[in-house]
């Protein structure tokens, strides 16, 4: 209704499934925002996966996308 769900847990193909949900979040919700859509919170921590020294840089894609839309 207010377009406040901005991320959902999904598999590599984009399918929203129970097996793609690591913490049992209702409706696979991983990120939400306020009604004005200028503040958001998310459960996954892309900063923990944004550098090869940390063993993964998939999270960097989240930050790159945010910079493109802001």
Describe the structure.
The structure is a single chain. The protein is of the alpha+beta class and 70 residues long. The protein has one domain. Helix content is 14%, strand content 17%. It is built from 1 helix and 3 strands, in the order βββα. The protein has a 3-stranded antiparallel β-sheet with strand order 1-2-3, with no helix packed on it. A hairpin with a 6-residue loop joins strand 2 and strand 3. The longest helix is centred in the last third of the chain and has 10 residues.
Averaging pLDDT over every residue, what do you get?
Answer: 86
Structural class by SSE content: alpha+beta
Give the radius of gyration.
13 Å
**Count of runs of 4 or more consecutive helical residues:** 1
User: For the largest beta sheet, what order do the strands appear in spatially?
Assistant: 1-2-3
Number of domains: 1
Shape: globular
The portion of residues assigned to helices is 10-25%
* Largest sheet: number of strands, sense, barrel closure: 3 strands, antiparallel
SSE order: EEEH
Which regions have little confidence, pLDDT < 50, spanning 5+ residues?
Answer: none
Q: Distance between termini? A: 23 Å
Strand content: 15-25%
Counting DSSP E segments of at least 2 residues, the number of strands comes to 3
